[in-house]
Amino acid sequence: MNRPPDEFQYIPVEQLRALSTSCLKAAGMPEAHAQQLAHLLSNSDLRGVRSHGTRTLYGYCKTIREGGVNPNPDITIVKETDTAVLVDGDGGLGYAPTMLATEMAIEKAKEKGIAVGAARGIGHYGSAGHYVRRAMEEDCTAYSVQGAYPQYYGSNEGKRAAHYGNPPLCFGFPGQEEAPVILDGATCILADYQRGEEFEALESQIPAAFFKSMGYTAIGTLLGGAFVGQADPRAEEIAEQWPRARLGGLIVVMDLGLFAPVDQVRRGVDELSHLAAKEMIPVAGYNETTLPGGIEHRCENKYRQSGVPVGKEELKRLEDCADELDVPIPWRS
User: Fold this and answer.
1) CATH class of this structure's domain 1-66+295-333
2) What is the 8-class DSSP label of residue 226?
3) Per residue in 204-213, pLDDT tens?
4) What is the number of H-type helices and E-type strands within the chain?
5) Is 262 helix (H, G, I), strand (E, B) or coil?
6) Pick from 285, 325, 321: nearest CA to 16
7) Angle at alpha carbon of residue 29, lines to 27 and 33, rounded to 5°
8) Structural contact between residues 235 and 79, judged by C-beta atoms closer than 8 angstroms
9) Class level of CATH domain 75-291
10) Reduced to 3 states, what is the DSSP secondary structure of residue 189?
11) What is the value of pTM for the model shown?
12) Range(s) for CATH 3.30.1370.60 in the chain?
């Protein structure tokens, strides 16, 4: 999914943001939330993470218009301490509530060293990396995950244990001069599209890998689900009214200078990347070793200049979304 498309058109990121903002507003989202979401989706495009970029715009607009999530949620603070905050998302998409929790957790972590932000009663919050990267901008390291209660299987046809869930999660450390080390992915060893006999055969060949992914999934589900209050009657009430808002989200933020000087930690991140590239034998089929975050950093620098390579199918989906909402398409003018 996140390999560069074979056939594409370069689109400036500013045009992707403008179209996304207009479509979300036309679907019923408030302007501030629309701008925020458009910015985050296009950031994923810049990093080459197509799976969580503007290709999701059509689905989000459809979900909003069909009443799956609350287009204009009343986001409130449920609980707050010196080192923690819980936000009620009121059935909206998860981006705005989780980013609010993130901003508050960053402020608390800068003062206390560590803080936790959570959101309940929310829809999909996209890439967990959105929130971790925001913390990294403020000289912090962070971990984020989204979960549910009760556990749902989604596309896990047949409920095979090896396909168990796939909560998004992210860990991240900012570098000094080099790319950040940021693991932005999901818990299951298999992607949702990796199904069939070929992949089932792996279960007997590398069972330990599947047991690990089941464990990661279970912990992620609990941290982003029951732990943040998705078992609360209020969350159940939200899910009844807004059926696509049955998720919770969590972010743990730590001040990068909690134990050592910030620049010392950042240099350590750079050194780790240098050593990996210099000393590690690449994975079979690849000609270099990069740590998580390196390729995304490279894409972002490139695509800011060239524009984002949008695949033909994704481009049509964006244009269909705009046409249905009577929104002008910037690259057509």
Assistant:
1) mainly alpha
2) G
3) 999 999 999 9
4) 12, 9
5) helix
6) 321
7) 140
8) no
9) alpha beta
10) coil
11) 0.95
12) 75-291
